[in-house]
Amino acid sequence: MKRWNVVITGFGTVGKQAARLLAQRQGYYREKYDADVRLVGAVRSTSGLYDVNGLGEEALLEWGAAGKRGDSTFSGCEFLASSHADILIETGPSDLKTGGPGLTYIKQALEQGMHAIAVSKGALVVDYAGLSALAKQKGVNLKISGATAAALPTIDLLQYNFAGCQILGIEGVFTGTTNFVLTKMMEEGITSEEAILRAQQMGIAEPDPSFDIDGWDTACKVTILANAAFDAQVKLSDVSRASVREVTDEQIASWKAAGLTPKLIGSIQKTPQGIKAAVELQAVDAAHPFATVKGTTKAVRVETDVMGELLVIGGKSDPVAAAAAALKDLEHIIRGQRAY
Ligand SMILES: NC(=O)c1ccc[n+]([C@@H]2O[C@H](COP(=O)([O-])OP(=O)(O)OC[C@H]3O[C@@H](n4cnc5c(N)ncnc54)[C@H](OP(=O)(O)O)[C@@H]3O)[C@@H](O)[C@H]2O)c1
């Protein structure tokens, strides 16, 4: 039986769910793939836990609880270097300017021949091309489902299902929170502030909702997808961006009167001038498939040269789904599927 040692960097909401699902699926991996998958290390901002035989649930729970600190010697890149793990799952903060700790961890992991699974977006936004080249050079995978709409298949759809096709363009409702806010404004006639507050009360929006509401989350996803699936060199600053905060009551009233539905749409198009990525507020008519995409539901529509158009709607938008997307990547690695 092949042994797979896993390390998780960032042990917050998503990291903890990834550890929980991993523990739950150990028997399944053994039976289905003859694979002994163990979480041997986890790292938070100032401490970590490590056990070469696999971390027990109790130790993880205690350490993961707020205020509990583990061993401060198990932190940072030195820890990663000495862990001798096979797979890194990166679920730390998304720093869009520098790539943050995620960029350092992913680089270090790839350098030492580990596969890397990114759920955080910072490293991918800042240097997807560099990381992808490094992964290829080392013969390992860099997988990014968790960072590119998670439960909604986007990168797998583009890299596997349309292999050999030319992707002419994609558009999507990539952020559940913004779609929830727009849906509530349309259906209940409440203001954007009220709808954002509602989303926060329901745990859908973060205490600081700007990352989602102001279009950054969608802009990150289209930047990463453009670079990963179209081999483009799009920078986050190249992507035009719209905010749901700007939507007024008057706009809502006029869209309702005209039978239109507002959506925050991220798009990537092949144009004669090159790849164009954008995040726009669009009012779509009832015939548009995104008109029926309500609440936190997401959707993606892909146009290809010879396979025609494909539409996918659905996928949960929550930390469990994000962790599950990372484990989908892990399973593809165990099966030996290489991402290019
Ligand atoms: N939440 C979602 O549904 C979702 C969905 C898709 C993608 N994501 C992305 O996934 C990432 C994690 O999200 P989350 O909601 O789990 O965030 P979170 O709850 O804030 O957790 C972040 C974790 O990162 C740790 N951290 C901070 N600096 C670190 C460092 N230098 N080294 C190692 N760990 C460090 C924190 O440590 P402490 O515990 O010590 O503070 C914390 O455990 C984010 O980048 C987010 O954009 C989230």
TrEMBL record:
UniProt pathway: Amino-acid biosynthesis; L-methionine biosynthesis via de novo pathway; L-homoserine from L-aspartate: step 3/3; Amino-acid biosynthesis; L-threonine biosynthesis; L-threonine from L-aspartate: step 3/5
For the keyword Disulfide bond, the answer is no
Q: Which UniProt keywords apply?
A: Amino-acid biosynthesis, Methionine biosynthesis, NADP, Oxidoreductase, Sodium, Threonine biosynthesis
Homoserine dehydrogenase catalytic domain location is: 153-330
The catalysed reaction is: L-homoserine + NADP(+) = L-aspartate 4-semialdehyde + NADPH + H(+)
Q: Name one GO biological process term.
A: methionine biosynthetic process
Residue numbers binding L-homoserine: 206
- Where would I find the Aspartate/homoserine dehydrogenase NAD-binding domain in this sequence? 10-142
Q: Which residues bind NADPH?
A: 121
Name of this chain's protein: Homoserine dehydrogenase
